[in-house]
Design brief:
This protein is of the alpha/beta class. It contains ten helices and 18 strands. The strands form four sheets. Strands 1, 2, 7, 8, 9, 10 and 18 form a seven-stranded mixed sheet that branches. A six-stranded antiparallel sheet has the order 6-12-13-14-11-17, sandwiched between helices. The two termini are 33 Å apart.
């Protein structure tokens, strides 16, 4: 089939419309550049979605579908298993690769946990000898964190906790009843439980309305009160007329000639036709693994192992956050009268890392997210209650059912379960990687990825500590744990790599072109008009969620692109 070549040459072509791509489009169009954005998924507008849809309005009552793995009303289209988009793993290893296939990608349904990396996070090797230091410091990126805070909006409080830098915060919402109980227990144990830092605005900001506490943030937000790329970053560029977006564009490769990236080739998923577009600068923001896949598939005589891969590092040093969860039933919250627990669609408090790793048997820290309260009960809630009754009552009483018994159980137990989820830092290892599967292609004939990933003893010891600590908090609350402590053989309940959806590190930045793909401005060492502004540039993945740092690095890279173009260097 003949490839259709666009006659227009854009200043910049961006692949991906999530946090990194959206921020690049926002900054570059503001600077007057003509930008083309390619998105592999369809169009999405939160104002047309299911923010206020009741479960009974669907025959599935909001249950998940293959295209929406977090539920029918969740603003997530994609998942770990997408028809026609396979991936594989090497024998004996595990990786669950999540992809968001929609305008804005995963910014539409993420938890909005917006944490800055701290000074120690950029120089962790200097502290414990593991991994590598970043080529930038906190002081260099801090001004961009400030600018992201002001542009997007984030609530929280400034606390004097080492390596947990504050920000420019709006007032946080009041903790819910169960969160007050958790804080009381944590205070007694000298564990900090502080207001969350979420990119959900609690006051009107930059033309967006304050959150009205409907609690449906996972459905995206019709009032644009929480952050997503389509609601905050893309509209200014579209309004300027300098941003063009092509949806359903499955990018095959970055085209290259005479030392420069010349544009990209993509397959239109609607007509299956292949197209080529030209641009002076190419920015990859397709997500860490997808951007690595594009580079590895972009081969030439200059780069037989993939574009910008003279170091051989593309795809290597893949990282994801560790994770595990604990839940318990709190008797003092049983038979509670109805009370208001309105709030954002997420936690109002969280636990940042508070201990000294040099005194522990694992090198890097974790934070703790909390959940519970009087949300909509469901299968998991009543399944937990069944487990509780079987463990702590005389005989295996079965909760639920129909009629009077069902009502009594719900009144008794509703709102009495609390849970904690730890999210920790995994170490960057060269032998955790993604590569091109020599035997795999997707439905458009594009070679697919194969993953190789294993947790080390560092991560297993960390998760063991999470389990023990969180169980002790439930004990301090006078609660009853809903399941036994996971065994060492079960990895202490650690999640599979990839399941936390914080994958980063496949196109790492560094000062040495022999050991890194990008410089400190997210610019490829080998091809100076090629940039990667998703999580691929990360040298480490601290326990903090990556989105705020992706946004800050993309803003910084975009400023550098504008400067270099003005100087005639791009």
């Amino acid at each position: 089939m003949q490839i259709k070549q666009s006659t227009k040459e854009y200043d910049v072509c961006i692949v991906g419309s999530g946090a990194g791509g959206g921020m690049a489009a926002h900054e570059l169009t503001k600077a007057g550049l003509d930008v083309l954005m390619l998105e592999a998924g369809g169009w999405f507008d939160s104002q047309d979605f299911a923010m206020f849809t009741w479960p009974y309005e669907s025959p599935r009552r909001g249950a998940s579908t293959p295209e929406q793995p977090f539920g029918e009303f969740d603003a997530c289209f994609g998942g770990w298993d997408i028809e026609g988009e396979p991936y594989s793993t090497t024998p004996g290893t595990t990786f669950n690769w999540f992809r968001g296939r929609m305008l804005g990608g995963r910014t539409n349904h993420w938890g909005r946990i917006s944490l800055r990396f701290g000074p120690d996070d950029f120089k962790a090797r200097s502290k414990d000898g593991l991994g590598d230091n970043w080529p930038i410091t906190y002081e260099e990126i801090s001004p961009y964190y400030d600018r992201v805070d002001r542009l997007v909006g984030v609530f929280g409080t400034n606390e004097d906790i080492p390596n947990e830098p504050g920000g420019i915060f709006m007032k946080p919402p009041e903790p819910r009843c169960y969160e007050h109980l958790i804080k009381d227990a944590c205070d007694k144990m000298e564990i900090p439980a502080i207001p969350s830092r979420l990119s959900i605005i609690t006051e009107s900001h930059n033309g967006r309305a304050a959150c009205h506490y409907c609690g449906q943030c996972n459905r995206s937000c019709a009032t644009h009160s929480n952050f997503s790329s389509p609601s905050v970053l893309l509209p200014p560029g579209l309004d300027s007329g300098r941003l063009e977006i092509i949806n359903n564009a499955m990018v095959r490769e970055v085209t290259y000639s005479d030392g420069k990236a010349t544009g990209v080739s993509y397959v239109n998923k609607v007509d299956s036709q292949e197209y080529k577009v030209k641009a002076n600068v190419v920015i990859l923001a397709a997500s860490a693994c997808e951007s690595a896949r594009l580079l590895l598939n972009s081969k030439s005589s200059d780069f037989p192992d993939g574009l910008a891969n003279s170091s051989g590092v593309v795809g290597k040093y893949l990282m994801d956050s560790t994770g595990t969860s604990v839940a318990g039933l709190i008797p003092k919250m049983m038979d509670m009268p109805a009370h208001n627990e309105d709030g954002v669609g997420g936690m109002h408090l969280y636990i940042p890392w508070w201990l000294d790793n040099s005194k522990l048997d694992f090198p890097r820290g974790y934070h703790v997210e909390m959940w519970g309260g009087r949300g909509m009960p469901g299968y998991g809630f009543m399944g937990g209650i069944q487990n509780y009754n079987a463990m702590f009552q005389d005989g295996p009483k079965r909760s639920g059912g129909y009629g009077k018994g069902l009502k009594e159980d719900y009144r008794k137990y509703y709102g009495s379960v609390v849970g904690f989820s730890g999210r920790g830092e995994g170490i960057a290892y060269e032998d955790n990687y993604c590569e091109i599967d020599p035997n795999g292609v997707d439905k458009w004939g594009i070679p697919t990825l194969r993953f190789n990933y294993n947790w080390s003893d560092h991560e297993y010891n960390q998760v063991k500590h999470m389990q023990e600590t969180l169980r002790s908090v439930i004990d301090e609350m006078g609660g009853h744990l809903l399941w036994d402590m996971p065994s060492k053989e079960d990895g202490y309940g650690i999640t599979n790599p990839g399941q936390i959806i914080h994958e980063v590190g496949t196109t790492r930045m560094g000062d040495d072109p022999n050991t890194s793909v990008l410089n400190k401005y997210c610019q490829a060492h080998d091809v100076d008009n090629l940039f990667v502004v998703d999580g691929g540039s990360f040298v480490s993945q601290p326990h903090k969620n990556p989105t705020w740092t992706i946004l800050a690095l993309s803003m910084r890279a975009s400023e550098y692109i504008v400067d270099q173009k003005n100087r005639g260097n791009l």
